[in-house]
Amino acid sequence: MRSIWNGAISFGLVSIPIKLVNATENHSIHFRQIHLADGGRIRYRKVCELDEEEVQGGEIGKAYEDADGTMIPITDEDLAQLPLPTAKTIEIVAFVPADQIDPLQMDAAYYLSANGVPAAKPYTLLREALKRSNKVAVAKYALRGRERLGMLRVVDDVIAMHGLLWPDEIRAPEGVAPDGDVTVRDAELDLADALMDTLGEVDMDSLHDDYREAVEELIAAKASGETVRPAESGDTGGGKVIDLIAALENSVQAAKKSRGEAGDEGGGEMADVHPIKKTSGKSSASGKSSAQTTKKSSAAAKKSTSKSTPKSTGAKKSTSTTKKATAKKTTKTAAKKQTSSSGGTGAKKTASSRKRASA
Questions:
Q1: Residue 19, beta-bridge partner list
Q2: What is the pLDDT of residues 257-288, one digit of tens each?
């Protein structure tokens, strides 16, 4: 990688010669402006406002425009004479915990490369000291004509430097927060937590610029003369008033489905979403007690049925016994009648026989 700045890190009385290398690169697709009539490229020319003539780069200097419009010329020699101790030095001024650096201050990122063999030992010393302390170094340096603030930290086995904005360059977030008091319910927070847990973590290396890929495909298709089909526009629902609970529940279900965690729920269709209602402990307890009561009453019914069965059997037995006793009584009575009737008849016959004998 090509270095963009050569200097040294000032670590107390230790000087570490380094090279500054860009740690990031811009992959954005850049377009040219053209004349729609004939496709000719549109170029910007630098023209002097006074004589309206085009000016070449060697004839252009810099100046500061005063409030009244007066131009105050500033030359490179003027700037070179300024007392700027960080012109060729990254001067470490403090070591602080990383969480003391506001991410809003983060700017461009660079790699610091040891410049030459003698720089290897002090470079390694600073790197290992940063690792062991779990701190970052705050430094001042000059680049492209101005003094800047930076933060040094370790990335793998390399010291990286992040350019930082000065504290007075961070604007206060006045008037940005929502107006009025907004209350968030516990149920909504619970669903938000569930959605965060479902989405989980992501491998940062797997993220890529979908829009840039689409633009590259568009350019390739046009270059080969293919017909470009318009992409389907998805409705993001921006600006619509939504049911927050329903949106969160749908989001959790969609996230689970996309990660293959839906299981056997629903068979591919989302269930209807209803607002969550809080249930008090008393109602749940009464529900449990009523369920227990129902179970007890059903058990009691089964017991009473089982007990009543033998009683009915005994009743049948007693009924049959009674019928048998009645039948016996009837038979005896009939026998007595028959005996009495036969006895009476015999007495009459004997009396009549006696009368005939006396006569």
A1: 6, 113
A2: 877 765 444 444 444 444 444 444 444 444 44
